[in-house]
Design goal:
Elements: H1 4-21, H2 23-44, H3 49-62, H4 76-89, H5 93-96, H6 98-119, H7 122-133, H8 136-141, H9 148-168, H10 174-187, H11 194-208, H12 213-241, H13 243-247, H14 253-265, E1 271-273, E2 276-278, H15 284-297, H16 299-314, H17 324-347, H18 359-377, H19 382-403, H20 416-428, E3 435-438, H21 442-447, E4 450-451, H22 467-479, E5 484-487, H23 490-496, H24 500-509, E6 510-516, E7 523-528
Parallel strand pairs: 3-4, 3-5
Antiparallel strand pairs: 1-2, 5-7, 6-7
Length: 529
């Protein structure tokens, strides 16, 4: 009778053989099953307060408004692509969620291509796709309307084109030119991607050597592709708001680089430039809590990364199991994000969905580690077999532990039933042009009403509202009160705690007409008398 350990090795050997012989069948199965899981989550996943704000940015585009010109907005490439989804599928949060869903599946496909090219191994490529698409954090945020999924898709495409060019060993520089374009598109979805672009140039320098002519050509073409997009964006928006305003805004990537330097030496709590305001740090205990949650959800990936680095350091130089190219490509990718989010955590904030940007590189790392551990478990060296077996079991245990934390309400605030109930009431009791004051935009979007002061991101006031802003809000409130005020847990923190006139108006001029208690916070609708 075979021992359990031998049976496990035999099982995984058969799985690996299947990966080799039926590669694209397995890939299709992985993609199809993960798509169905996400399709189920599409209407069931609870709603994050940011979703309504992002979707309303896109709705304003459909109304003919221009982001950064007519209203404060998320980055333009993200907003315009999201607007396309709303135009095609309808102006609802369900339609908007198709963008992160397809982006998430797209990342899984690109990871297969990267794994195949980087490791020249179908097994690792398939595992990378499976690990990414079945990671709890990937599943949970795959249908929430936020910037991370689309940005990460563009980043992974850029990284694939870069490694494809390098492995091709031919001077097809258009590949890295297009890679630079995708890095730039990623920036105009989410600013954090600039760290990946900068580290990609460092990777090229490291791979070819600082004095290599090919390094110079590759770097120039990558940078040229990047700044072609930057030039077009700046040219377009300058025609509306002027070059100086654009150059001192997030539309200029150089502003994103110099801004942290300014903050380090700034004495003020806030630094403001055109179209942006950086607010004081969120409570550090909240930042730490989010990092702890990330470690709990991704312990299996982080443990795999530890083994990855140990393997590279301890490997026999005569029998390389991990090349310098493979190590630096993935190591620098992770390092860029680690530096960016360490700084961001110290200076501003950190939330769990941000870690989604780490997942592609970590999935590639863990896929290599799993294949390596299985091969070690088949060797005759007893000590190595035991270490490999224990490590493999630990990865599985960490993964199961992560799965136990999954719930449709994780890190989101409003249930789909609450959103439907509240939005339908407002829609049935409002006319075109009626305004809603709330901390979350989701009620405004779903009821087809207007946000108070046309501000789609009131959460920007969450940690700091200065005197001028309070005066402006009070003035607008006196001039024309919104027909509805929705207390949703965020309205209280953003408006009622800071603006006395809103609190007074709520007591004097509004009646409580609807309430729902099916979410994290009770949601109450007040209608103008």
């Amino acid at each position: 009778m075979k021992k359990p350990g031998s049976l496990m090795i035999l099982f995984f050997r058969k799985v690996i053989e299947l990966f080799e012989t039926k590669t694209y069948h397995i890939l299709f199965l992985i993609l199809g099953t993960s798509f169905l899981i996400r399709l189920f989550l599409l209407p069931e996943r609870w709603i994050n307060p940011d979703e309504g704000a992002h979707l309303y940015d896109a709705k304003f585009v459909l109304d003919g408004k221009i982001p950064f010109v007519d209203y404060g907005s998320r980055m333009p490439v993200y907003v315009y692509i999201l607007a396309v989804f709303l135009k095609v599928f309808g102006v609802t949060y369900i339609s908007g969620r198709l963008l992160p869903l397809f982006s998430n599946i797209g990342i899984g496909i690109i990871l297969f291509l990267i794994g195949k090219k980087l490791f020249n191994n179908n097994k690792i490529a398939l595992l990378a796709t499976a690990i990414y698409l079945y990671s709890p954090l990937s599943i949970l945020w795959s249908v929430v309307v936020k910037t991370e999924q689309l940005e990460t898709l563009f980043v992974t495409i850029g990284m694939f084109l870069l490694i494809y060019f390098i492995k091709l060993q031919k001077e097809k520089y258009y590949l890295v030119f297009v890679s630079g374009i995708f890095f730039a598109l990623a920036y105009y979805v989410r600013e954090s991607s600039i760290a990946i672009f900068l580290i990609s140039i460092l990777f090229v320098i490291n791979y070819y050597g600082p004095r290599s002519a090919k390094m110079v050509k590759t770097s120039i073409m990558t940078v040229s592709g990047y700044f072609l997009v930057v030039f077009l964006i700046i040219l377009y928006f300058s025609s509306f708001i002027g070059l100086n305003t654009v150059m001192d805004s997030p539309l200029n990537p150089m502003d994103t680089i110099k801004d942290p330097i300014k903050k380090i030496f700034a004495k003020e709590d806030t630094i403001t430039s055109a179209n942006k305001t950086e607010y004081v740090h969120q409570p550090f205990d909240q930042t730490i809590e989010d990092w702890v949650r990330v470690f709990k959800f991704d312990s299996f990936l982080l443990f795999g990364a530890l083994i990855f680095f140990v393997c590279y350091i301890l490997q026999n130089k005569n029998e390389m199991i991990l090349s310098k190219l493979q190590f630096t490509f993935l190591g620098l990718w992770l390092l860029a994000l680690a530096i960016f989010y360490l700084y961001y955590s110290i200076r501003t904030s950190f939330f769990t969905p941000y870690f989604g940007e780490f997942l592609p590189a970590l999935a590639l790392v863990l896929s290599f580690v799993i294949v390596f551990l299985i091969s070690e478990m088949e060797k005759h060296d007893t000590l190595k077999r035991k270490i490999a077996g224990i490590s493999f079991i630990a990865i599985i245990a960490f993964y199961i532990s992560s799965l136990s934390l999954v719930s449709v309400s994780f890190d989101c605030v409003y249930s789909p039933d609450t959103v439907k109930e509240i939005s339908q009431y407002i829609k049935s009791h409002s006319t075109e042009g009626d305004a809603v004051l709330s901390g979350a935009m989701i009620w405004t979007l779903e009821s087809n009403t207007s946000p108070f002061m046309n501000k789609t991101h009131p959460s920007g006031y969450l940690r700091r509202m200065d005197e001028n802003q309070i005066i402006q809000i009070s003035s607008e409130m006196e001039k024309e009160k919104p027909k509805f005020i929705v207390l949703d847990g965020y309205t209280e923190k953003i408006f009622l705690e800071n603006v006395n006139s809103i609190r007074n108006s709520l007591n004097d001029s509004y009646l409580l007409v609807k309430e729902d208690n099916g979410s994290k916070y009770p949601v109450k609708v007040y209608e103008l008398k």
